[in-house]
Amino acid sequence: MKVYIASRNAGKIRELKAIFAKSPLRLSTYRKYADVLEVAGSYAGNALLKAQTLATALRDARISAAVLADDSGLEIDALGGRPGVYSARFGGPELEWPQRRLALLEELRGIPPYRRTARFVCALAFVEPNGEAIIATGRVDGYILETQRGTDGFGYDALFLYPPLGRSFASLSEKEKNAVSHRRVAADALLAMLADRV
């Protein structure tokens, strides 16, 4: 099944393509897609907003295909669950990711490791050509490190310690991360829901 990804985030697109590579879904990008304002207030709502925006554009272009969109974020218990759905805008939308990570570390300064519990959360919205929408979610628990570790990944990966492997997401290979990430958990849930449709 041909599926267009409603995203312009290169790291996210790369991960989604790798995660779904052995599934019946054939992921592609639509060059005319433009990111939308994420104003829904929840991961599922934002993912659905993105997916429906692209689905409408495809229908207007007379293209019959499904759409997949992701919205994800980092929730830190010591910050009351922040940054959450505002993860990509933490510290202000003008910040680049290196500055955003440093701003987060600064806010957590002095908080001991055992109180730095956190989770990555992902919602995937899948909109079929007929407009029917399906939402799947996934999460992975871990801790926020006191310093950045690793050079792979993107976003907050260098700050997120994944306890089962004892390394940050940015210290894992792409294959290792894609086997255990919040996107993988959400993707597996989505594929289970689509099992009798694709």
Topology:
Elements: E1 2-5, H1 10-19, E2 26-29, H2 43-60, E3 66-76, E4 83-84, H3 97-107, E5 117-127, E6 133-144, E7 160-162, E8 167-168, H4 174-180, H5 182-193
Parallel strand pairs: 1-2, 1-3
Antiparallel strand pairs: 3-4, 3-5, 5-6, 6-7, 7-8
Describe the structure.
Helix content is 29%, strand content 25%. It has 198 residues and is an alpha+beta fold. It has a single domain, classed as Maf protein (Alpha-Beta Complex), CATH 3.90.950. Strands 1, 2, 3, 4, 5, 6, 7 and 8 form an eight-stranded mixed sheet that branches. The model has no long low-confidence stretch (mean pLDDT 94).
Give a nutshell description of this structure:
By secondary structure, the chain is α+β, with helices and mostly antiparallel strands. It has helices at residues 10-19, 43-60, 97-107, 174-180, 182-193, and strands at residues 2-5, 26-29, 66-76, 83-84, 117-127, 133-144, 160-162, 167-168.
